[in-house]
Amino acid sequence: MIEQYVWDLQEIDETQVAVVGGKGAHLGGLSRIEGIHVPAGFCVTTDAFRRIMAEAPSIDDRLDQLSRLKPDDREAIRTLSAQIRRTIERIAVPGDLAAAITRPLAQLGEQAAYAVRSSATAEDLPTASFAGQQDTYLNVVGPTAILQHVSRCWASLFTERAVTYRQRNGIDHRTVHMAVVVQQMVFPHAAGILFTADPVTGNRKVATVDAGFGLGEALVSGLVNPDVFTVRHGEVVAKEIAAKQRAVHALPAGGTQEVAIEAQRQEQPALTDAQVVRLVQLGRRIEAHFGCPQDIEWCLVDEGFQIVQSRPITTLYPIPETGDQENHVYVSVGHGQMMTDPMKPLGFSMPRPCSPATASTPAPSSRPPTRTPPSAPPPAS
């Protein structure tokens, strides 16, 4: 099998997680949706990562040591993972691999600014998001800097938090590989996160939008409290406008910087209601494509929205499909497995009106059952 080290995002779809990781696969899928704009770019595949890992056989011994540690052995995990990261970052990228990675820059612009983003194969999955576990670098300029940051993304598969997350979820470190997405930077007026279902209540008919000025890094890092908009049936039904004192902006020479927002602008909404509704409409289109509620990262650029990431919302409980448009109430009874005492009559009566399964069940009596005397024996013949 011939190894392919670089794929254009337009060549990728969401079935290719093993080759381009979760983030890369979702971005490829997004780029195929009509009306959804995704910054141009390419993905350095997991073939490149495996080749780099093969250059350092000593990593195998450290992975064996890691697999024997418990998630609570934080000091040992911190030490071993740091050793693995340093080893990966020091590996010289072979010439043919470096050429394959930098070749697309000739078409996209060698001195343009790029986002270099980790995309692990156990990332953005329906059951485990791994959000924030690996590294992303913004506003990277020049082929040399891009190669350096690709190496850092490879190494970030072994950050302490990523290793601990895998340990807690029972994921073998050797089964996870790292791809890297390289995309043209966008310099947004505003950015944030769209949830196509309410992540707190689980309501699939409500969408929420978090928005702030500048790059989305300010929201993700917790630097500012965002504006929060709630949308139902194509209308903003609630909003909370925060005092946004800081923002993150790109620097001309590369990298980012925190900047203060002028006082008169701090409490202005980052988006208009019309923009929020339009964004949610895009989110519904993305949700329909992937078939489940989505956690979407967006940027507002020149009055248009660019989508820079979409992943399943992993905190929602599953609900059965229905063929009608009626409202339904679902109750989780999983906690019943942990109940060690019998339910009392009042507690037992509460779910009865809600559940057909219990509606026909007689309510328990608070009085002790009446003992029926045994029948008299039949007369002797």
Strand and helix layout:
Layout: E1 6-8, H1 17-31, E2 41-44, H2 46-54, H3 58-67, H4 74-90, H5 95-102, H6 105-108, E3 113-120, E4 136-141, H7 143-155, H8 160-168, E5 178-184, E6 190-195, E7 206-213, H9 217-220, E8 227-232, E9 235-240, E10 246-250, E11 256-260, H10 273-290, E12 294-301, E13 304-312, H11 345-349, H12 356-359
Helix pairs in contact: 3-4, 4-7
Question: What are the main properties of this structure?
Answer:
single chain; 381 residues; alpha+beta; Dna Ligase, domain 1; D-amino Acid Aminotransferase, Chain A, domain 1; 6-stranded antiparallel sheet; 5-stranded antiparallel sheet; 13 strands; 21% strand
CATH topology of the largest domain: Dna Ligase, domain 1
Gross morphology: globular
How many helical elements? 12
Overall pLDDT score: 86
The CA-CA distance between the termini, in Å, is 91 Å
The CATH architecture term of the largest domain is 2-Layer Sandwich
Q: Based on DSSP secondary structure assignment, what is the total number of beta strands?
A: 13
Q: What structural class do the secondary elements suggest? A: alpha+beta
Task: Report the order of strands and helices.
Answer: EHEHHHHHEEHHEEEHEEEEHEEHH
Strand content: 15-25%
The structural domain count equals: 2
- The main sheet orders its strands as 9-8-7-6-12-13
Instruction: Give unreliable regions as ranges.
Output: 124-130
> What is the CATH superfamily label of the largest domain?
ATP-grasp fold, A domain
